[in-house]
Amino acid sequence: MKEQLQQLQQEALEKIAQASDLKTLNDVRVAYLGKKGPITEVLRGMGKLSPEERPMIGALANEVREAIQSALEEKQAKLEQEEIEKKLASEAIDVTLPGRPVRLGNHHPLTRVIEEIEDLFIGMGYTIAEGPEVEKDYYNFEALNLPKGHPARDMQDSFYITEEILLRTHTSPVQARTMEKHKGRGPVKIICPGKVYRRDNDDATHSHQFTQIEGLVVDENIRMSDLKGTLQAFAKKIFGEDREIRFRPSFFPFTEPSVEVDVSCFNCGGHGCNVCKGTGWIEILGAGMVHPNVLEMAGFDSKKYTGFAFGMGPERIAMLKYGIDDIRHFYQNDLRFLQQFNRA
Ligand code: FA5
C-alpha cells in the first residue's frame, strides 16, 4: 500500500507537470483528489490493515494528498499568470504609433456666402422663410402682378410641369405666400433663400438652376430710402468699401419703382472683359418698392402699408467675393476647386 501511494504521487506529479492549460489541470485534480479518485480508494481499504500499519499509511496518504494539492496550486498559479500575460500581449496598444488623419469636410463656397448673407440680415432683425421649389403659377406670377399672358413673364423663361405648376423661376413667390399668411397685418421682415430654375443657356455667369435670396419688408411708412440704406449696408458688409456699386432704374412687375444693383467687375476692375461681357459691371440684385397690386392681392391695405423687396443671386456674389470666373464651377464638385476654400 505504501508503494501504491508513492506510485500515485509520482504519477500525479508527472501529469501536473505536463498539464499545459487550466482545464487539463482540473481534470488531473478530479482524477487524483476526487471522491472516486485512487487515494480515497486506498484509504477505504485501510480497514484491512493491521493496527500498527494503519497510522503510518494514514499519515502517508495525507502527505501524498498534500503534495499533490500543493503541486496543483502551484501549477494553477503559473498557468493563470501565463494566461494573463498572453492576453495582455494580444491586447497591447502601441501608443507611439502615428494616428490616422481624420479628413475634414468643408462648407461649399456657395453655402458659405449664403450663410454670411443670412447672418447679416438676421442681425438686422429679419427671419428666414422658405417655400416650395415646385410652385403654383399663381404664386410665381399672378400674385406678383403678372397675370397670364403678361409680356413680362418672358423675362423668366420657365420650366412648366403642367399649365398651373412650374419650377419656380425666382424666390419672389415666397413673398406672396408669406404676406398671405400675415392676413393683412404687418410688420413682415423676411429673407427667403432657395433654389430657382430658368430655361437660360449655361455660360460663365448664367445657369439653368441657381440660387436666389429674396428680401421683403412690409410695414407702415416703409420708404425707398429704407431700401437704399439696407442695400448699401449689405453691399458694404459683403464686398467691402473698395468695390463700386451702381443703382440703375429698372422694371419688375411686382415693384414700383424698381432698381437694379450692379457691382464693378472683379475680373477686370471695371474696364470690360468676357466675365462682365465688356460692361465692367456685374448685375447682382433686383429690387424695388412692393407694387400696391401685390400688397392688395395678398390682403394688405396698400394705403396703410408699404414695403420694399429685393432678390439677389448668391452665385454672382460668391464669384465676386472669391474671384471665380465661371458659375459652372459651383455645380461640378471638382475637388481641386472646392479644396481651395478649405479653412486653415
Ligand atoms: C428676379 O428674379 C426678381 N424676382 C428679383 C426681385 C425681387 C426684384 C424682389 C424686385 C423685388 P432677376 O431676374 O433680375 O430678378 O434675378 C435676380 C438675380 O438673380 C440677378 O440679379 C442675378 O444675380 C441672378 N440671376 C438671374 N438669372 C441667373 C442665372 N441664369 N444664373 C445665375 N444667376 C442668375
CATH architectural arrangement of the largest domain: 2-Layer Sandwich
For the secondary structure, the number of strands is 9
Distance between the termini: 88 Å
CATH topology of the largest domain: BirA Bifunctional Protein, domain 2
Spatial strand arrangement across the major sheet: 1-4-5-9-8-7-6
| Outline type | rod-shaped
Order of helices and strands: HHHHHEEHEHEEHEEEHEHHH
Poorly predicted residue ranges: none
What kind of oligomer do you see? Answer: single chain
Mean pLDDT over the residues: 89
Largest sheet, strands/sense/barrel = 7 strands, mixed
Q: Approximately what portion of the residues adopt beta-strand conformation?
A: 15-25%
Bound molecules: adenosine-5'-[phenylalaninyl-phosphate]
CATH C-level of the largest domain? Alpha Beta
The helix content is 40-55%
Structural class: alpha+beta
The radius of gyration is: 44 Å
CATH superfamily of the largest domain: Bira Bifunctional Protein, Domain 2
EC number: 6.1.1.20
Enzyme class: ligase
Binding site for Mg(2+): 256
Catalytic activity: tRNA(Phe) + L-phenylalanine + ATP = L-phenylalanyl-tRNA(Phe) + AMP + diphosphate + H(+)
